[in-house]
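Please predict the structure of the following assembly.
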Amino acid sequence: MELRAVRGMKDILPPESWDWQWLETCFREIAERYGFGEARTPLLEATQLFVREIGEGTDVVEKEMYSFERHSDHLTVRPEGTAGAARAYVQNSVSGREPVTRWYYIGPMFRAERPAKGRYRQFHQAGCEIYGDEGPVCDAEIIALCADVIEAVGVDGYSIHINSLGSGDTRERYRDALVKHFLPLKDQLSEESQRRVETNPLRILDSKSKADQALAEDAPSVLDILDDADRAHFDGLRRHLDALGIDYIVDHKLVRGLDYYTRTLFELKTTSDALGAQSTLVGGGRYDKMVESLGHKKPVPAIGFAMGLERILSLVQSPAEVPKPACYFAPMMPEAQGLALQLAHRLRKAGHYCEVDGRGLSVRAMMRRANGFDSRLCVLIGEDELAKETVTVKDLARREQESLTLGDDFVGRIEAMLARPRSEDGAETDG
Ligand code: ATP
Ligand code: MG
């Protein structure tokens, strides 16, 4: 039987992995400008963590988790990063060390969803979490950070959608209002939404079914029933976004797929239709109750987001370039291979990328590969060179060659060659 990667899971190999590193570096640099430090938490967590925090009535918990039992532990491969980060925050008593904590993460997530364009079973998210700041200054900062990343990588056309789900009994009152709206329409709802009318009616607003979406069209707006504190928080966020000159759309039907959100909720979507229904690039919001629900002695407000890296990469042109060797070593006989290795080693120690051809092929075959790599220099070592204790260095860009001795100045002489323009008249160098 031919063994293949699991459905919905992809290999990321060179040269594509250069694009990934570029995107991740853009994200890290911007997150660090906002004061975030990297948190690396395990890929496996107790199943109960996700059941409790993401919520039993959600798609993720109902049908998408990779869960298993081992040595009587019930474990799940993480479907998202927020619950594990909050678990780590509580377990490590981080609130005792600092009043406000800013973490970012980058890594794979796992959900047994139906694969589609922009939807995989192993996918990658980069995300941020802030603990200990009730906002709305940090809500605005988090949204600004997302926009900075999306713009820095060159996504062409996106929109920001915001909503507030309120907190405390606003949530309950809104739930009741939705039950009242959907119950008389129950027969017309999709099967899934019928099940959720009384248990989790918020989820109906997020349904992908066209019929559900039509019935949700004139559902009551959560923004009409926010209490004073929730309203002040939401207005504060809007004011700060206005101050930053960030455009946004208020969308009272925005709910998102996880149950833990309170107050602010937001999404960044691409305005191109390249990703079809998978147009959401970033999803985030507040989860002020999570830390306490994990057993923390006092409540700690929190907010975070996750961006889907596959979706972003599918929309942008990465400027990442595959590195080219400075020096390609072509030993022309077995006796020359040791010297080639030694010289390459010296150059690598000095910071230069070198390739050594150990295949024992003809000069022609080795030169072909040096040119294929677009190496600047090719170092030939044959019988003559060994006898004279020299090497022949071909500058493949300038089509010149030199004979170099192997003394202490070898690295310096190679660097001098690399520093020359690629052609007599051009100014471009590789050095
Ligand atoms: P969607 O409705 O787009 O599936 P979601 O509500 O499940 O999103 P979150 O769990 O908040 O999304 O994840 C945040 C982001 O991670 C999404 O906006 C998306 O960019 C990305 N993402 C989520 N699920 C997948 C997946 N299965 N494959 C690829 N990217 C994903
Ligand atoms: Mg989803």
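The chain has two domains: 16-166+226-313, 327-419. Residues 156 and 412 are 45 Å apart (CA to CA).
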